[in-house]
Amino acid sequence: MAKTLLEEMGERLKAARINRKLTQMEVYKLTQIDPDTIRLYESAQAEPDLIALSKLADTYKVSLDWMITGFEFNSRSRLFAAEREVRRLQKIVDEQANMLTTIQKVVNGGVMDSMPAKRLGS
Length: 122
Prior knowledge:
InterPro entries: Cro/C1-type_HTH, Lambda_DNA-bd_dom_sf. By secondary structure, the chain is mainly alpha-helical.
């Protein structure tokens, strides 16, 4: 039998809490949401309002998008972060290639070998 959206959200709420290694009582201390209410949310017997969802998302360090739908919708910011990381790693590769070239020159007494150093990632 297919799960309801509320049941799926309840499973995500529970998984996020467990992932953060928090008990329902610890979540109560952090959010002021009653442990019985948290239990009802996690078992899909009650639907959290946006304020409760926001508190839980902050506490569990997850997005509201994910809590409600199971998907992240901020892919643009992730794409920019990935592109920035690729540029950072490429800079490291370029610096290492330059160091290898310098080492080759020193080892060969300032005369470059006829075979150029292979560039990583090429």
